[in-house]
Amino acid sequence: MKLTTAQALVRWMLAQQTELFDGSHAPLFPGVFAIFGHGNVLGIGTALEEVRDRIPVWRGHTEQGMALAAVGIGKATHRRQVGVATSSIGPGALNMVTAAGVAHANRLPLLLLPGDTFTGRAPDPVLQQVEHFHDPTATVNDAFRAVSRYFDRITRPEQLLSTLPQVARVLTDPADCGPVVLALPQDVQAESYDFPESLFKSVVHRLVRPRPDLHSLADAARAIRSASRPLLVLGGGVRYSGAAGRALRFAEQHGIPITETTAGRTLVPHDHPLHAGPLGITGSTSANVLAGEADLVIAVGTRLQDFTTASWTVFSPDVHLLSLNTARFDAVKHGSSALVADADEGLRELTDVLGSWQAPADWARRAAGERGKWDAHITSLRSPSEGLPTYAQVVGVVNDCSAPTDYVMTASGGLPGELIGGWRATGEATMDVEYGFSCMGYELAGAWGAAIAHTSGVVTTLLGDGSYLMLNSELFSAAFAGHGFVAVVCDNDGYAVIHRLQTGQGGTGFNNLYADCRTVHTDPPRTDFAAHAAAMGCAVFPADSLADLEGAYRKAREVAAGERRPAVVVIRTHPSAWTEAGAWWEVGVPEVSHRAEIAAARDEVLEGKARQVRYMG
Description:
This protein has 24 helices and 23 strands. The protein has 617 residues and is an alpha/beta fold. It folds into 3 domains: 2-205, Rossmann fold; 214-373, TPP-binding domain (Rossmann fold), CATH 3.40.50; 384-572, Rossmann fold (3-Layer(aba) Sandwich), CATH 3.40.50.
């Protein structure tokens, strides 16, 4: 078939199908986000227009925002579908680097198709081209290499024949999943080649489920049998394997308490008797107490990020770590005993080998007891109080109004701690907290992607005023395209959580809250978030107090579902009230300072580092 490079790429995308967890099939690439410019409008743009009735193309308004929306699709579909974004060369391409970083850190599939400069070089230097004096083959797209699982620059049409199978592999592989970047020089996009028809045959991509090595399985079973206080930690890999039910049955059969990581949140019913709560700095005191007493940690599908491990101080120094993971890279971290396997298959075979073995009953009962104390603490934080509403109170209202099919999101700032630590799961795998890259701006853009992918229930994203101001253009994109979700905007006058970190480590407030920022005005302007969101095509429901919030949020839910556009709830919130899990986090406090408070904070850092478990072998 004589096709241009761009036409062949698009036809190949159309031929790719994915098998969902229920056995049904869906497009692997459910749509493309695009901002056209020179470098992609004529090549990939023309190819997409020719099949506009077969694959939706949504217009973005910032390249970073639309690419983050594509990331949101990957998360909301539990990595079974892949968002795609295409841009022009130069600044358009570079604007997507952040989204690639989000996908890479979170192990999420993403296909980016940035335009690139001419391979023929006859018109060099072209508009938006950055010339590299030492390397004429380098372009700005090389910036993607640090945040790509797979990167290729297509300089000949026939190169697609060898690279597209690798593209599919990375996007669907449970161990290597991450962003793929195909840089597409604008002249090559338009060149043609006689592609074999077999390239465009329909392919169904099914989840690969590697089974554990038998020797490693036997070692893992011996480690579990020898433990008297085992603890099960469930991460995002359990979600992407569809193994939540298997993990619960494993815990129930063997009497093992369960905790969750950030990516594993809402895998366990909140009131399950073995649920100890979420683990780590933004987790719960209940899970952290059990983690400190556990003699064996069974980590399933987690990369054990520092917020989960409290910078590796949450576990006992003599704990043994058993890591079940599809990625050997993650399975061997910190000297753990590695069991490389799919989460569902690995837990099934572990259950078979362990048979009727159970952990001591008094240890299993500790989970519900400790979590009960944490639940009481969260309930007290949610109770109405004088003054501005707190994040915990806002999250409580949203939580109480949510249904099992709803989907809740947040990203950076203080809200991750409130959702991870305080949310009570209403449905399975119904939360997306982007705290792998902690990307401000993901909250609104990712919610657009989630609203496209999440076809039942209401998507709600919670964010602060800082994140709203950083990236809000995709509110209009979603409103224009007709994708409804609820955004709860908490206005606390600046970057409040970083102000908390700054002052909590001995510093003085500086350049975070507006009160501490440089301005020539005695009465600086404030952002009218309600007016701004309305101007972006959203329905707006201001809430003047906590008492008003429930009504505003319920109305917003109705609009998001019925009118198919974003509905924004705006509420002023307290700038310094937070949910604390009692865990430590290592940060770079200066060794030398003019403030005695910083010197004291540095001493605390040294104390914390003395408690770090550096190697668990």
